[in-house]
Predict the 3D structure of the following.
Amino acid sequence: MRSELGRGSVFSVLVPRAEPLRTEPAVPAPEDNAPLSLAGRSVVLVDDDADVLSGLSATIEKWGGQVLSASSRVLVLQKLAGAERVPDLVIADYQLAEGETGVELIEAIRHEFNAQIPALLLTADTSQERAREAYAHQLPVMYKPVTPQRLRAMISELLDGGERAGIVEELHEDLTAPRE
């Protein structure tokens, strides 16, 4: 700090530089001109923000997917009751209304169908705690705002042969790598 009477004060802080934490896994994007086809695929979308839910639904439907959307765990489980087939993918916001989480929701849907359904968490929470929780449940995370190109790449990765373990391992390595 430097200060001169009648002239003002100058404050400065020195902070060591650190490498940025990359918690979103690198996923190769499909060719820009190759549209993602979700024809015949069912996607469950859950977000308590109506605008986000509407936008995601429109995007998935544009790619040919059949969308089942809801704003909460209770509503989505009601809609899935009696479903004739297992959903191909679940996309859920992490923080839902009434203290529910996307992790709990995904686990409930998997339990309902007794299947390890590919799933993806969306969140605006970039904390390491959130990333570690996703890793503990073998769930890839994308941080809002999510572009259609990045979403398309992640969906393609999740649906094309179960590469989820590789995605999650890469995420874990980023979280546990020593920092200099």
